[in-house]
Structure formats: structure tokens, C-alpha cells
Write a structure and sequence with these properties.
By secondary structure, the protein is an alpha+beta fold. It is built from 4 helices and 6 strands. It has helices at 7-20, 23-28, 51-63, 126-134; strands spanning 30-38, 46-49, 73-82, 85-95, 101-113, 116-124. The protein has a 6-stranded mixed beta sheet. It is globular. It starts with 6 loop residues before the first helix and ends in a 9-residue tail after the last helix.
Length: 143
């Protein structure tokens, strides 16, 4: 029987998988019934429930907002863990589908239980996301 990874390692592994585009590891990082909360009033704002919905629709949907073939550079800049709670900071640098530079600093509060991420509360500059990736800061939430 393989020992479970500690929460900090689980989140580090997940962020590195996003950086590397490793969808299998990304999916494996989440509990089946995980939830991800994204702030604001964008079409992606709200609570995304279920591992497949998070990976395929939320994260996968964001990929369509970026320029195909252009690199997306994800860098983990800080990570702190206390028990099952992990706070991670990362930067996301890429190019929007329309050609604009996308540069955001993000923070996520992760809860990890039994070696899997069960919840994430993400905080980012939603105005920047709206203006660069969605073209309108006043779009209403579709969720």
C-alpha cells in the first residue's frame, strides 16, 4: 500500500501539473466530489462542483481563452501548509486568444484530505481576467 502524500506535496504536485499541462495528474489531484470557488461576476465565477467539472469545464474552459500554441507559464511563488489547509501563490503569464498579454497573480486556499484536494477558494485580479480574457469587465456570471 502506498502512503498518501502530505497536503503541501499534493498542492505542489497539482500546480506543477498545471504548469506542465499534465491533465492526468491534475485530475488525480482532486477528490471526485471536490469544489472550486472562483470570485467575481464572470462567466467562470461561482462554485464548480465535481472533479471532472473542475478539470474539463472550469480549467479546460479557461484554456480556450488563451492563444493556441502560445506558452502559459505558471510559477509557484509561495506555499504554506497547516494541517489539511494549504495556501499557494502562483503567477500565470500567457497570451489571450485575442493577442493581449495575460499576467496575473493568484492565490488559492486548498483543503486536502486523504491525499486529494477537496476544495479550493481562488483569489485573483478578476478585473484583469475580465478585460484580457473575456473582453468585458461587466460580463455577468453564467453560473
Amino acid at each position: 500500500m502506498t502512503a498518501l502524500l502530505d497536503p503541501k506535496t499534493v498542492v505542489t504536485r497539482y500546480v506543477e501539473a498545471v504548469r506542465d499541462g499534465d491533465v492526468d495528474v491534475m485530475r488525480d489531484s482532486f477528490a471526485v466530489d471536490a469544489a472550486w470557488t472562483f470570485p467575481g461576476s464572470l462567466p467562470i465565477s461561482g462554485v464548480w462542483e465535481g472533479r471532472d467539472h473542475i478539470i474539463d469545464d472550469f480549467l479546460g474552459g479557461m484554456g480556450t481563452r488563451l492563444q493556441a500554441g502560445a506558452p502559459l507559464v505558471i510559477a509557484l511563488t509561495n506555499i504554506v501548509a497547516d494541517g489539511e489547509q494549504v495556501v499557494a501563490e502562483w503567477t500565470s503569464d500567457g497570451t489571450a486568444a485575442g493577442g493581449a498579454a495575460y499576467r496575473n497573480r493568484c492565490i488559492g486556499v486548498f483543503v486536502v484530505r486523504d491525499g486529494r484536494i477537496t476544495s479550493v477558494r481562488e483569489y485573483a485580479d478578476t478585473h484583469h481576467v475580465a478585460s484580457v480574457l473575456f473582453g468585458d469587465a461587466n460580463e455577468s456570471s453564467a453560473r
